[in-house]
Fold Spore germination lipase LipC.
Amino acid sequence: MEDELFYRAIGDSLTAGVGSYFSKGFVSRYGQMTVEYLNRPVRTEVFAQNRMTSGQLRAMIHDQHVRSRLINSNMVTITIGGNDLIQANRMFLRTYNPVVFEHAEQQLYKNLLYTLYEIQILKWLYPTPYFIRLVGLYNPYPQLGYSQFWVNRFNDVLRSLQTDHIRYVDILPQFTDGGRNLLAFGSIHPNRIGYNLIAQQLMNSGYHPLTP
C-alpha cells in the first residue's frame, strides 16, 4: 500500500451518523471504500455536532485542535445547512414571512464561504494534495409544499461554492426516490441504507487530486 491518507469529516448530525443506530454512518463507510479503491490506508477523524448550524461550523473552524487536524488533511467532507433550514422553517411557522428563508440562505453562503476560505488557507500554508466534498441536502419534509423549493435553493448555495478542490455531492434525487426507506424509523436522519448511499455518492464524486 502507498502512504496513508488523512480524512477529516466535519459537520452536523449526518457526519456524526445519527440515525444509524447499530450500524455506522457514512464516514466510516466512505473511508473503507477509499481504502479499497485507492489501496491506501485512511486515518479518519470526525468533528461533528448534532444540530450544528453553519454559524456554529464557522466558529468551530477556529478551534485550534480542529485546525491542527485539518493541516495535513487530504480528504474533507462537510455536512451543513440542514439545521439552518430547519430553524428558518420554525421561524416561518411563527411569522409566515418567507424572508426568514432568504436570510438563512444568505447566512449559509457567508458562513460556508468563510469556513472554506479558512480551510484553503491552512492547506496553502501546509500544502498536501487534498479535496473538499460538500454533501448536499435532502428533503426530510416532502409533505410541506414549499420545502422542495428551499432545499433546492440551499443546494444551489453549496453548488455555487465549487472550485478545483471543492465539489458538491448531490444526494437529493436518490433520497427523493427512496423516501422513508432511506430514513431511520421515526426520524429525519438516514438509516444504514441512506448512509451507505451518501458514501457511494461521495465515492462517485472522484478522488482527484489524490490519483495520478
Q: What stands out?
A: The radius of gyration is 17 Å. The CA atoms of residues 39 and 73 lie 18 Å apart. The chain has a mean pLDDT of 95. The chain has nine helices and five strands.
